Amino acid sequence: MVSVTSKWEIPGSVTPNLRTYLVRTNGGSWQTIRDCKFRWKLELGKNTLDVRTQNRFEVIGPTVTATVLFKPAKAVNHD
Questions:
Q1: Helix, strand, or coil here: 74?
Q2: How many Cβ atoms are within 10 Å of 20's Cβ, its own excluded?
Q3: Distance of alpha carbon 7 from alpha carbon 70, whole angstroms
Q4: For residue 72, what pLDDT is reported?
Q5: With pLDDT > 90 as the criterion, what percentage of the chain qualifies?
Q6: Please, which pLDDT band fits residue 5 given cuts at 50, 70 and 90?
Q7: What's the first-to-final CA gap in the chain, in angstroms?
Q8: How many whole angstroms separate alpha carbon 25 and alpha carbon 36?
Q9: CA atoms within 13 A on the CB side of 51
């Protein structure tokens, strides 16, 4: 298993009245990210990360999706 840690800077968003980011992995349930940090645990094969914003009026922004195909390299024998 591999984990990817990302940090988002809320002041850098163009979403008016931004309150939080919402994320989900591999089609699961949405999670609220309050501290702008999220650890993405990759599994073998295809992994998806969906991210969207939510403003102070609870308006949800468009979803942005990243897809990663995780295939570990085979061990190399140096004998």
A1: coil
A2: 17
A3: 21
A4: 81
A5: 51
A6: low
A7: 27
A8: 16
A9: 16
Residue 28: both structure tokens together: 């699961």
* More confident: 7 or 17: 17
Collect contacts of 60-65 with beta carbons under 8 A, ≥24 apart: 60/22, 61/15
**What CA–CA distance (Å, rounded) separates 14 from 32?**
18
If 0-12 CB within 10 Å is exposed, 13-18 middle and 19+ buried, where does residue 78 land? exposed
The answer to whether 48 and 76 have CB atoms below 8 angstroms apart is no
Number of Cβ within 10 Å of residue 54's Cβ equals 18
Q: Considering the entire predicted model, what is its pTM? A: 0.74
Residue position matching structure tokens 């650890």 = 39
